[in-house]
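INTERNAL AUDIT FORM
Audit reference: QA-55
Scope: verify that the stored structure record matches its stored sequence.
Auditor: D.O.
Record contents follow.
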Amino acid sequence: MSDAAYSFVLAALVLAAGLISVELAVSISIIEILVGLFAGNFLGLHSTPWLEFLAGLGSIVLTFLAGAEVNAEAMRSKLKESLLIGGFSFLVPFATAGPFARFVLHWTVPASLIAGVALSTTSLAVVYAVLVETGLTATAIGQLIMAACFVTDFGTALALSLLFSAFTWKTVVFVALSVLAIALGPRLAHHLFGRYGDKVVEPEIKFVLVALFFFMLLGAFGGSHAVLPVFVFGLALSGLFTRYPEVQKRLRSLAFAILTPAFFIRAGFNVSLPYLVAGIVPLLALLGVKLAAKTGGVYPFAHRFVPADATFTTLLMSTGLTFGTISSMYGFSAGIIDRGQFSALVAVVILTAVLPTFVAQKWFYPKAVVALAASGVEAVKAGARGLGTLEPGVAEADVAYEPAVGKD
């Protein structure tokens, strides 16, 4: 298939996914993953270098936007809750999935460690996409979930690095330059936004993209991944985006129109149905282990800190995609796991991106909030989506939201 034909088919699939998402009122990320799975297994489509690039950039941009949505002050005020929910969201699955793969499925020790890392993740990209669609990014529960996701993925990245990465001088350079960029970036952005903002050439968007490409370059150089420093960079710029909400809105439009579909559809391409059928037993076993471990690790603390939304929080913290796929791909590329093990892990990762989010949105959407008058609700909804600011005197936690999936 020529590049032109491939691009046309892919664009048509992206459009179809969007329409299906609207009609079924299901998160677009879920539909795009399923469309990718269908296209890869029944239409013969496979990932291409340019799609891989767009997907990689999409994961980085989504992670940056997730960090930019987090209110730093709110994160500091909920530090204990974030650390406990996010920390045990990593620790319990890692301590459960690895031994299960070793002693029940009889995988090798290195392969079992890869399974533990891959299944301990929570997907910032998936969680952020769902929170944006449902209008919860600026609410207390949304802020807490994103902060907890950061803690979980930090543990995952640290475990993968400590267990399998060789620390060299390049690693030191990667960490040092990332810290420097995070420290200096907000000052440079503040000057640039103030002097060159509101121009048709979009200098603010270009600055953000240059910064993200710089982090990607550092990650490639240091043999690591840029997701964590990118999230922190987004967090460092969150205050600036409060002053310039239109920049965040335009960047979000770019991400969800082009980059997000590439990221989620490419994830669906990774699943091979023949391998899944052949390895259905270990697949279902690993899926059950991950969901049970996430529930055991997250729910007790979620019930303690956010009892009204404990199940919703637990389900979103059970998702996986970016780091789970990265960990699995690393294990397969390094010869630690075979094709069947790789397909099983990636399938579990993708299923946990689909099933928990679907259940959370359909049956456990947060409802324990106070309804406002109709005139006030729309204004606050706009603020929650980062499109404006909340009305004076209106607290974010006092707003009743209806699921926005398929309505934006």
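Auditor finding: record pair retrieved intact. Residues 169-196 form the longest helix (28 residues).
Action required: none
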